[in-house]
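In response to reviewer comment 3 from the previous cycle, which asked for concrete evidence that the modeling workflow produces usable outputs, we include below a single protein chain processed end to end. The sequence was submitted unchanged, and the resulting structure tokens are shown without manual editing.
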Amino acid sequence: MIFLRLIWVLMIMLSFSCCNNKKYTHETIGDTMVDRKNFNENTNNVFLNHIYTILDENTYEEIKKSEFLKNTFCQCQEHTCAGVDENDSGTNLSWTGLYLIGEHTFIELFGQKDQSKLQAVQVGNIGLKFSVDREEDLEKILETFKQKFAANVFDGLYKRTADNEAVPFFYYVCEANMFPQIDLTIMAYHHDCLKKTGITQEDYNKKYEKLFNRTSASARSTSMESLFYFDKNKLFKDIEEITLLVSNDIKTKLVEQLLLLGYTCQETEGCVICHGPSIIFTLKSSENQECKLLKLYMSLNYAVSGIQTYKLGSCTITLEHKIATWVFD
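The workflow returned the following structure tokens.
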């Protein structure tokens, strides 16, 4: 893992050295300043939880039926999620996607044929989902976002449906200025589930074992609490770097929000690189208003021999040593 990190850091340092760099700060983004003391105390350890994107239908189906992904690369399964947004008049939500499970992060993929239905339940073209360990951390981030974005900030409690019962799952905070191009949400898993349901931990685990696989619900120990689990005997370990194609307007807004979450951002020639805990974002400028997921770099649980390439619809996955590169065309 240290070896992989050195490679990524060296690549980024080389890109910095070939151009004049601009380091983004709160003073260089936007006109409304936030409480800097509040910012410094409240935005540590905002981890990437998962990323989602919408694919053309052929690519979605190719990924869905790939024996390599299911048998060798990771836990991969199509699943329909159902739940209730308590802060949206109890609206019932439902969506179907492919889930690729890593140790601390996961990938969620949707088919284009369901795009209108997905947008109806606030699924954007690209989703960046972050998590924090405690509800109190999320409340402080909510205060910080409200200082900066005022009426465009939304928060609430999402419940998952299990055995026809709505079970508290996570609190969320989001800012809607980038939607539907990008959906950036910060979550805190609900730590009061047992009190809400009035049952013991043992009974809860038995009753909702298909919903919650672990008793711990921390930002780094909980990736996808559903029918899936992390399989260390398969290749995929975690998402390490995400490359996005974004319009200048979306890039400015995204950098602004990442700064508020404690990430550092620096402009290089044609892109902005943002560093957070255990994740790197590379933001490339689009000549039009298109926003698109371009590439994922992923760490692997074990090294592969040689260079292996797998074509899945319009996507290509390349494996080399302990790195996987997933390119979305």
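The first strand starts at residue 22 and ends at 24. We consider this sufficient to address the reviewer's concern, and the full set will be provided in the supplementary archive.
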